[in-house]
Write a structure and sequence with these properties.
The complex is a heterodimer of chains A (150) and B (554). In chain A, 46% of the residues lie in helices and 12% in strands. Chain A is of the alpha+beta class. Chain A folds into 2 domains: 3-59, Orthogonal Bundle (Arc Repressor Mutant, subunit A); 71-147, 3-Layer(aba) Sandwich (Glutaredoxin), CATH 3.40.30.10. The mean pLDDT of chain A is 91. Chain B has 4 domains: 25-130, 3-Layer(aba) Sandwich (Glutaredoxin), CATH 3.40.30.10; 148-358, Rossmann fold; 368-451, Ubiquitin-like (UB roll) (Roll), CATH 3.10.20; 456-551, de novo design (two linked rop proteins). The chains are: A alpha+beta (150), B alpha/beta (554).
């Protein structure tokens, strides 16, 4: 994302110390991670301490302090998905991507994530890539899905 | 759209919408709920739109919120008469459209009972729907959530008009108290009493909040409600704001559900355009507006005081419970928080009256309850039944029992802070107090069926593992207590269980539940307690097996 985009998001919230979460969320959605300089800019523009921005950015799981891969691979680890074999799916996806939870590969292709619960329990276990849901996923089919993402 | 000035203008607008609609005209509703979306209902919706345009079909078409029968998605309902089609694919679209126009049924797509092969065409004949009472969710297939007209057509905002033009705030509060509406978010605390506390708090500035965080694992009904019929929740919130004397409302919801955010944002815009939010609503002198806030991915932010910190823009660390948020919440102002389903009940209570509401349900739990039914069960989805319905009805009549010829073993309620009961208790009624006594509090309403192959020790470990990651870490009993419990449970599942582990677990559960600041820590050991109560032999056998294996010479 261009610096301009980030600046325009920050500009919207200038002088509003209560809007740190809103600003960070929008930047995270666009940029997929929060560089330190950007957090400093947010702190300066909104009028809060850098430590406060850092506190929030490191607390909420949505915010990433490191760059992410081009594709966010998410395995649902919610209760229903777990009961229906979510752990095996996770193992397989970790094996295919060569990643541990939270890691990004050297080519920045994938970032592996887990989380619960995304509310599509009836079709679990679920694999979600860049927000697209793949329901009733099996370890065998996972490779075919991931192949589509370069 | 000019702002509506009076209740009479709202009635006029509604009459105009209804007059422009013909109930006998064929309609097609494609489900865009979370599960159907995961089964690519978006492609299906596009195929319908294209086909309808191609043949210039004269029918009403809409993409709606969740129809409920999630595992049979993508769902399509054809009106009039609510003909239900399941597992519909884009290649079925042409046939459905042409049959809808002729008033015929596409037999191959209707419900077929997996064992008997019996078919059911209409919604009220299908076992999954037949045993339900869809007071809150019934309108969802009739509503395009992005169109306020659809909500007005089913009587929407009639309750708000009634409250503002015919009732005083005290009368609204009295009605909700009389209805004995209990909070649907977990505790079952009477909503009317909570409202009264905030209403009577000395500060002038007051807030009302919709908790749409729904972090409970395997709970997805609030999302279905808020995404599928956002105006209904909003109407409840505005009525609540009026009764309590609040000037500002907040809807706190998940950031990871794009359609929910879109629908709620759109609903707020439309309500403002129509003058149902803003200054002097329907000339009543009541000013009220609503902001939307997002959870950004941590379970504890669903806890009321943590949620309020999050709305203020801070990290969501809960406060001790002796500071009541209903007196001192957001920016230390009195703040009344209820969950999505609780607010959704309010319009109906006002328009139909408390007596109607109390005629549904069990002795101490009134109205209907939304349940997210999932796990090892044939029919899974969003279910709505009167309070007091036996669990057997939910699991077997609605849910169709356990698939793959397996036997059921346990029922789990309330996600990671709930509890499990053995299947022998399946005749227990769905009731706040009854289920709490059994050790499986309803929580928000996520009901999970577990089959005979389920390893309870592993489930206990899994749930604690989830909570350990979600604890905010502010207080020691929660942060450390859960960690120690998890360590012991992990040891047991890995074959390293020791003789006194269960005693140690019992100690830890006690300390953690007594010493933690908020509900996350306090109830973190509830699943474990229920499992030790009903499935202790499984833990003992496992530990005994561990010790025996250790003493074998290598």
């Amino acid at each position: 994302m261009s610096e301009q985009m980030i600046d325009s998001i920050i500009e919207k919230y200038r002088g509003k110390p209560g809007a740190v979460i809103h600003a960070l969320t929008e930047i995270q959605h666009e940029n997929h991670w929060l560089p330190r300089e950007v957090m400093q800019k947010v702190a300066d523009a909104l009028g809060v301490a850098f430590s406060q921005v850092m506190h929030i950015a490191s607390f909420y799981k949505t915010f990433s302090l490191t760059p992410k891969g081009r594709h966010e691979v998410h395995v649902c680890t919610g209760m229903t998905c777990h009961l229906r074999g979510g752990a095996k799916l996770m193992e397989k996806v970790a094996e295919i991507t060569g990643l541990k939870l939270g890691e990004t590969d050297a080519e920045a292709r994938f970032t592996l994530e887990a989380g619960s619960c995304l509310g599509s329990c009836s079709i679990g276990p679920e694999l979600i890539v860049d927000g697209k849901h793949y329901g009733r996923m099996t370890p065998e089919r996972a490779a075919d899905v991931l192949k589509q993402y370069e | 759209m000019p702002r509506l000035q009076t209740a009479a203008e709202l009635d006029e607008l509604r009459a105009g919408i209804l007059a422009s609609r013909d109930a006998a005209k064929p309609s097609i509703a494609v489900c865009g709920g979370a599960a159907c979306d995961g089964l690519d209902s978006a492609a299906l919706g596009a195929a319908f739109a294209a086909e309808i345009q191609r043949v210039e079909a004269k029918l009403d078409f809409r993409v709606t919120g969740c129809h409920g029968f999630c595992n049979k998605g993508p769902n399509v309902i054809v009106g009039p008469g609510d003909v239900c089609y399941f597992e519909v694919k884009p290649e079925d679209v042409a046939e459905i459209v042409s049959c809808a126009l002729k008033g015929e049924v596409v037999e191959r797509l209707v419900y077929r009972h997996p064992q008997t092969g019996e078919t059911a065409v209409h919604m009220n004949e299908i076992p999954f729907y037949k045993h339900q009472m869809r007071v809150l969710t019934g309108d969802i297939p009739r509503i395009d959530p992005t169109r306020i007209d659809d909500y007005l057509a089913v009587g929407g905002y009639g309750a708000l008009a009634k409250a503002l033009s015919q009732m005083t705030p005290d009368e609204v509060l009295a009605e909700v108290k009389k209805a004995n509406l209990r909070g649907r978010g977990g505790g079952g605390f009477p909503a009317g009493l909570k409202w009264e506390t905030t209403k009577n708090a000395p500060e002038k500035t007051k807030y009302v909040i919709v908790n749409g965080h729904e972090g409970e694992s395997a709970a997805f009904m609030d999302r279905a409600m808020l995404t599928g019929n956002p105006h209904r929740v909003l109407e409840g919130l505005i009525i609540g704001g009026y009764a309590i004397g609040a000037q500002q409302g907040f809807i706190y919801t998940r950031h990871d559900s794009p359609s929910m955010a879109r629908h709620v944002t759109r609903a707020l815009e439309q309500a403002r355009e129509h003058g149902l939010l803003g200054e002097n609503i329907l000339s009543s002198g009541f000013n009220f507006d609503v902001e939307i806030h997002y959870d950004v991915g941590i379970f504890v932010s669903g806890e009321s005081s943590a949620l309020m910190r999050s709305i203020e823009g801070n990290a969501p660390e809960p406060r001790p419970k002796y500071i009541r948020t209903s007196v001192s919440g957001i920016w230390d102002k009195p703040s009344n928080l209820n969950n999505v389903e609780t607010w959704a009940n309010v319009p109906e209570i006002i328009s139909r009256g408390a007596d109607w509401f109390t005629s549904i349900g069990s002795e101490r739990s009134k109205g209907t309850k939304l349940v997210s039914l999932s796990g090892h069960v044939v029919n899974s989805g969003v279910v709505e039944v009167p309070m007091g319905t036996p669990l057997r009805t939910i699991v077997f009549d609605i849910g169709g029992g356990v698939p793959d010829g397996k036997a059921p073993k346990a029922i789990h309620f309330g996600g990671a802070m709930g509890g499990s009961i053995p299947i022998s208790m399946i005749d227990a009624p769905l009731d706040f107090d009854g289920m709490s006594k059994l050790g499986a509090p309803i929580g928000a309403g996520g009901l999970l069926v577990m089959n005979e192959d389920t390893d309870m020790v592993e489930i206990a470990r899994y749930l604690l593992d989830f909570l350990v990651k979600e604890s905010c870490g502010k207080c020691t009993p929660c942060r450390e207590g859960m960690w120690q419990m998890l360590k012991i449970l992990t040891n047991i599942t890995e074959g390293k269980g020791r003789k006194f582990d269960l005693d140690r677990l019992a100690d830890l559960t006690e300390v953690t539940s007594l010493g933690s600041l908020c509900a996350l820590g306090k109830t973190s050991s509830d699943p474990l307690k229920s499992m030790l109560r009903y499935f202790k032999d499984e833990f003992e056998t496992r530990i005994a097996g561990n010790s025996a294996a250790r003493s074998q010479p290598k």
